[in-house]
Amino acid sequence: MLQFISGYIVKQRGDKCKLIMRRRQDLLRKVISVFFIFLTLSACGGKTDQNKINIAVIGKAKTSYWDYVRLGAEAAGRDLGVKVRFFVPPTSAEDPAWQVRKIEELATESVDGIAFAASDPKSIAASILKAMKSEIPCIALDTDVSKSRHAYIGTGNYDAGQQSGEKMVELLGGKGKVAILTDPSAIESLQRTQGFRDVLAEHASVEVAAMIEKGGSAIQEADVDSLLNLHPDLSGIFCTSDTGGIATARAVQKANKAGKVNVICIGESSDVVKYVWDNVIQVAVSRRPYKMGYLSVLVLHNMARTGINNALMILPKSKMIDPGVVLITPSNVAQYIEDLKKLGIKVQF
């Protein structure tokens, strides 16, 4: 697992950003190493080995992304001897009210830690604070809820947008017109968009010619059809989600512009990986959901064993762990799929 985590090197913006990425990766390795060393020490008031630690992980929906998170969490459970239960809403759609009910239900059980991915951070906050007052370790996963968690594990979305911007500039050879497909209702998408735009602002010959802003999964293939018709000279499209990436890939392929319009999207679903394989999407930015799930159980396990405050002392001051991203391209997609297979993840297309 750790080999997979560090197996891809992501190009950063200049020497300073390369140094930042190296420091982040070194810090993450140190955090993981210290966690495992810490687990060999006394419980320091936490739960003892004789009692099975019970951890709950709450995802957002029934998608491949959350299935990857589940697999990572379950792998950590096997490695650490922890009971891990994974929950998502029973329907395919996100359901904030269901998440609130599930957290309140878990708080009444003998759960030793909760990792949660909030579909609506505002609605879930009160339930998490109540659980925290009951001394239940709570970690925000994928989406931060800054005042209602002990720690956060998730992608640095602004950085992911910056890396996407640098890659776009590289693919365009430093000049051309691009479009952005984003979700203005999601803070993650806004952060990715801002990171992307900030990079492009440093390159006068790369112009943001158009934007499509729609919430949730509202971006459709027809939207991209219209975009391509209105801007026949587009050289690139950046999508802040795999939904937008898939819609864009279909439209680009239908218009016979695959390889002519460079597509970069945030996402790692099987459909996205297939379009990378076919060189319709040139870069897919994976948020490492398997690693996210693994780390959430590792941190919660340590909190249960050593006590919340002792475990927090090991984390960065921000109490945030960024798993980083993987840039999947046509040149490394075959190796990426092989590495996923080693983790028990099958990419089918």
How would you sum up this structure, described in words?
- The protein is an alpha/beta fold and 349 residues long.
- The chain has two domains: 39-154 and 288-315, 3-Layer(aba) Sandwich (Rossmann fold), CATH 3.40.50; 157-286, Response regulator (Rossmann fold, 3-Layer(aba) Sandwich).
- Helix content is 47%, strand content 16%.
- The protein has 13 helices and twelve strands.
- The strands form two sheets. It has a six-stranded parallel sheet with strand order 2-1-3-4-5-11, sandwiched between helices. It has a six-stranded mixed sheet with strand order 7-6-8-9-10-12, sandwiched between helices.
- Helix 2 crosses helix 11 (289-306), helix 3 packs parallel to helix 11 and helix 6 (157-172) runs parallel beside helix 7 (187-200).
- The longest helix is centred in the N-terminal third of the chain and has 25 residues, at 14-38.
- It is elongated and about 60 Å long.
Furnish the topology, listing elements before pairings.
Elements: H1 2-5, H2 14-38, E1 54-58, H3 64-80, E2 83-87, H4 96-107, E3 113-116, H5 121-133, E4 138-141, E5 151-153, H6 157-172, E6 176-182, H7 187-200, E7 206-213, H8 221-230, E8 234-239, H9 242-254, E9 262-266, H10 270-277, E10 283-286, H11 289-306, H12 308-312, E11 320-321, E12 326-328, H13 333-342
Parallel strand pairs: 1-2, 1-3, 3-4, 4-5, 5-11, 6-7, 6-8, 8-9, 9-10
Antiparallel strand pairs: 10-12
